[in-house]
Amino acid sequence: MAVGARLALAFLINTGVILCHLEETPPRNIAVIGAGIGGSSAAYFLRQKFGHNVGIDVYEKGTIGGRLATVTVNGQQYETGGSVIHPLNLHMQEFVKQLGLKHRKGVPEKLAIFNGEHFVFEETDWYLQDMFKLWWRYGFGLLRLQMWVEEILEKFMRIYKYQSHGYAFTTVEEMLQSLGGERFINLTQRSVAETLQELGISQRFVDEIVTAVTRVNYGQSPSIPAFVGAVAMAGVQSGLWAVEGGNKLVCSQLLEAAKVRVIHNMVTSISLQQSGEKAVYQVRYENENEGGYDFYDIVVIATPLHHETTNITFNGFTSPITPFPGHYQRMIVSVVHGYLNSSYFGFPDPKLFPFAVILTVESPKLFMFSTGSICPVNITANYRRKQPQEAAVWKVFSPNPLSREQLKTIFRSYYSVQVTDWLAYPQYNSAKGIPPIVLHDNLYYLNGVEWTASAMEMSAIAAKNIALLAYNRWNQHLDLIDQKDLVHKIKTEL
Length: 494
Fold this sequence. Notes:
Blueprint: H1 3-14, E1 29-33, H2 37-50, E2 55-59, E3 70-73, E4 76-79, H3 90-99, E5 111-114, E6 119-122, H4 127-138, H5 141-156, H6 158-164, H7 172-187, H8 192-198, H9 203-218, H10 226-234, H11 248-258, E7 261-263, E8 266-275, E9 278-286, E10 291-296, E11 298-301, E12 313-315, E13 328-340, E14 357-360, E15 370-373, E16 392-398, H12 404-410, E17 411-426, E18 438-440, E19 443-445, H13 456-474, H14 486-493
Parallel strand pairs: 1-2, 1-11, 2-7, 5-14, 8-12, 11-19
Antiparallel strand pairs: 3-4, 5-6, 8-9, 9-10, 13-16, 13-17, 14-15, 15-16, 18-19
Helix pairs in contact: 2-11, 2-13, 3-11, 5-10, 8-10
């Protein structure tokens, strides 16, 4: 080998061009807007990637946790927001492990589906009996549904391998394409009802089982896209869990672990301020008494940017950034401490009423999506679920606030009612397309992933993707962005 070639090779090796990526000077300050599960996860992952010398500010105008929240009844806290976590949600599992939190103990419960007049399905204490009843009424619909959901989950689980190797995506569509090809893209464009019927699942199964699940999980019908429908169906599988003390603890403890500065102000505007080669963003904020601003090298927006959900304006950008089309689904959560009116559900004697969860189908007679007896976020070893004739704490999902007459319909009497009015999830048929992740050079939007499916784990996955994407773009690691055929590429690397 010629001397010049050897010297060139030695230079490349010593400077790390061959052995590793070159690192740019890290950003000075990063802003995350929103301290729900998406924003708190983003802050945590950004700290992991950029290290402890970078300043990270998290802006939150309300309570840390966002749509993970609780209310207090008789000194006990109960979930009013995101309540259950799937056993395959690996980021949430890892958060609980790393933060020293615990899984909440489950309490057995039976479920039924109500059509406004009677129950169309009633769960029993016997698994085989339930399977026979489902087969008798719906044929092999449940088996076909389970196989379909499992196939989607198996492919979707690839995201954890991709992210562990540092790969990131600039759009949600690129991510879906990498996970499941065109099929995953198609699942965001066709309804779950149409998709399941093509699999040979009966209309009755869709109208009763699938409808009940999409109503309780998203307050919408099976006309929602198939991808979010699959996430909804996964949300009623076995092994679901929650965090002891409340799921919102994950958010507050992620922020604490990331050693960020939490600023309890409302962000009103983001302005582009060019400084040298890289953009700098001015973030203006205000509270009841005063306002202010600060400058950041990277900004992550982890709150919905839609007309009904935001008042953030964007200034100085060549391509205007405006609120995205589409609406959010209103979900009224009424936490009622009282006695269920079992007669309304066909059980005159409350002692004989066996169900803790009542789902519903679509019917003009029904004014609620579901009613369920709920347990506190802290469950002691000797905790038992209330007997049907006893006063219990119930959570009612409905599209509109319950009137006094409606409350009297569901409950014989009650001590208290606490109402939370959420703009909980996207209305999945109110807009076409998925919002972008990259709004500008180092300005990122996390909540666009909700328009694929809204769930705690989806927000955590989006947060990790943005942390990896921001890091890779900042340091020009372009070979880790939007790579094709990652399944085979990672196998080759291993």
